[in-house]
Amino acid sequence: MPADTHWTISSVRDALAAKKISARELAAEFYTRIARHNPELNAYLALCPKRAFAQAERIDGLIAKGATAENLPPLAGVPVAIKDVLCTRGVPTTCGSRILEHYLPPYDATAVESMEEAGAVILGKTNCDEFAMGSSTENSAYGPVRNPVALDCVPGGSSGGSAAVVAGGLAVASLGTDTGGSIRQPGSLCGIPAFLPSYGRVSRYGLIAFASSLDRIGPFALNVRDIATVLSVIAGRDPKDSTAAAAPVPNYQAALDRPVRGLRIGVPVECFPEGMNRAVREKVEAGIRLLESLGCQRVPIQMPNSDYAIAAYYIIATAEASSNLARYDGVRYGLRVPGSTLVEMYQKTRGRGFGAEVKRRIVLGTYALSAGYYDAYYLRAQKVRALIARDFADAFAKVDAIITPTSPVPAFKLGERTEDPLAMYLADIYTVTGSLAGLTGISAPCGKSPEGLPIGMQIYAPAFSEERVLQLASAFESAGGERL
Amino acid sequence: MKITREDVLKVAALAYLELSEDEVEKFRGQLDSILTYIEQLNAIDTTNIEPMAQALSGASVEHGTPLREDVVVPCDVRDAALAAAPDPAPPYFRVPKVIER
Fold first, then answer.
1. A1-484, CATH topology level
2. Shortest CB distance from B17 goes to which of A237, A305, A359?
């Protein structure tokens, strides 16, 4: 097997069923690739070969008993990676933070459990910005991830490791999490499809919380069909998560081949301002034209409150984070730095355990929630959030989907933006809007900049319209969208 | 200036967060520019707008937040939970003394 083989979920399935390779051999091949390339990429933080090979042998057992491509479970033998903010029983789960450096969760996240029940072989845990706070994966306490497309560039973030392992051939698919763009933006910067399910579509039990009204779990893969397969596995109600909606899970595969002729595509004028990155504008415009050539109708729309999305997002997300991260106090798990009093122990543990960005956000969020500022910041941000959701609701009365760039820029150089947190926040402009409104969406690769860096086009649809996103992304991909 | 050194110290105390001298100064400046940017929220008229606390509609059966069946399930997790503690004293978590005498 050549090392550059780009395995997909369907090619794994066919190869296993035809006995061209065993699940065990496939897992071993991926561990060989990881040993060779991970020292450079720093995309995996922990590997779990024992668990992976046990699962691979279970799959090989099914095949030995006569399972075929038709009746193998949907992810049988597929080597996958899990972002390190998702709990994995007995496998280190650090959130990219020193404060959880040696933490071994006593249970699996529901999404992880679902992946394994569907036959996936979990290779390991992927690097990320600390507690998923960041847009470059440079905020990990365990060093930055490099972009496999351009090693001197960031892979995006916060799910940079999950994007890099798929783009770099070190996993066939992966799970990431997205609070303000943390799946879509690294997908864009690494040149692979990256999917944001609706808020409530995927159980978050076992996802270590950042901002609970915004956090989601979603897949990375090399093509839209694989995205649909993973989504089918992780979507659905979960008695362990009251925010996992009861809506039935549709057949996402069936959506992939539906024609897109006649669909109305909203293009917000605000998303293509004067002076924006030229390559991003050209490629996303070309992407819209490609959809028009498939029979979609382009409709200019307005999103008058989108300019305020970053401000609202960074108040809401940090306020929720300041509350969620109160649990790291050195008592029940993770790091403890001794102190002479209980409060001193809390302060020292949190002061040494958290990195700069996490502390900055805890301070900002605590400030926004503190007496005298709550109305001016937090409450106002929630009202602006309602206005942004209303902009989308108004737009979706006229269009079936909305298209924007995913990121205002292609991958940037490591270290280029670390000193200016506000500049880093502003790069989330296209993704935080959909996060605030609870929409579903995807970042689909739509060509490369003159420097060869990938560019992503974002497709939004109303909450619980995953099928429409997949339908458009699949048609776009089949028409050659990635090579624009 | 939106945020003073004293503000940073006060908030850090509320959050039980020890900050170094360097961090206090650095964060003050960074938070000042972030809060200046956030000021733009005041430019919007939000009269009669209900705050949006979350994305799901609790009123909708399908897309709301369902309750689970009220059935007893095993929940014997004490040992597993204590195993992750930095200083366990089964069946308790041990912490520095908080009661005088």
1. Amidase signature (AS) enzymes (3.90.1300)
2. A359
